[in-house]
């Protein structure tokens, strides 16, 4: 990796990390406070509507965000075309969800869900107004500006949410927190980015961008729908309380895995796009990104799985203990998430959104099959099925990576195996500590110190290149 590219990547990772983890840390603390004030049923009600917000975001973006980032000669006409299309889709979706809200409430057998859905879906309109601003800032690898907007929005919305939860507003505390967050974030992106749309719309530009973005749209819709099948099934087959436990477990597992993946995706996509025509260089940079992401995510996820029980009992209390059971299982599924994402990123870099879509269809068919088999066996078994599905999908994801740049499943596993082995040893070591003491704080704090010390010591002793890369990145910033 050249010095200039490394500097751009380092700066991007730094500010993307600041945005993700400063915001998520604040939201994490806020979520803990609100979870103590609210009930699993309150979270379950909002969890039932997650799929509508997620699908709407995929439709609003329509792959245009990635298409704009990838296009080397984008124009103001391109930007404005995407902007107006997003607004039209946003308002159309809100109208659709507003009308269908009573039917959704009937599906779950919860009449109060109708009004909640009509209010919470206002966030769709806020999202539609900021897609282009985020894309243009990402093109510049300017995550500092995005970090400022996200941080301010998280703090203000968090204060609003806690106040409402404390005064007994229940599920409406969660709804208002979400809307305030989206509204302020969108407003600040408009102020900070300084980009304003032109009064123009080009069907030629639309067709050009959509030819690439449409495949990503279909893939995104498929992935979003599949990702939210679990909340739909749990809410329908089990109860709002069970869904509340599941969504909290998923949120805890997402904090390290999905956020680090998001950082890497946002940075690696424009960086890899800039060297997309130099296959040898692309291959080398790509493998570095894979190994570095695994070095960070694998121990975080196995460590979280190991301390899940004392962690949940201390942070949320005894009423959330079933959440700890689910969290321990889900962590072993989510630990592979960054590897999936970076493999799929490469297909976008190479302009192969057709292969991207094909892979998504195959993987989701496998995932749905496993889900159908595990539903009668209970919620825990469904989560174990998610682990199996994640590993099978990894094999599928790496197939075209091997075809395009000769970095297939075997090579990737060879690169990642040392990190995986040390992470699993750390998991066993931390888990064994809980058999030696019943003190929750000793289990949690001791497990964190023992696990992190063991992992760093072993990887340093074995001279892991990823550790040196991290030290190099940190020392330069």
From TrEMBL:
Keyword Transmembrane helix found: yes
Location within or outside the cell: Cell membrane
Keyword Transmembrane: yes
Membrane topology annotation: Multi-pass membrane protein
Pfam families: Polysacc_synt_3 (PF13440)
Regions that span the bilayer: 21-39, 45-69, 81-103, 115-137, 149-166, 172-192, 292-313, 319-340, 361-379, 417-435, 441-462
Alphabetical UniProt keywords: Cell membrane, Membrane, Transmembrane, Transmembrane helix
Cellular component aspect of the GO annotation: plasma membrane
Family as reported in the entry's similarity comment: Belongs to the polysaccharide synthase family.
Protein name: Uncharacterized protein
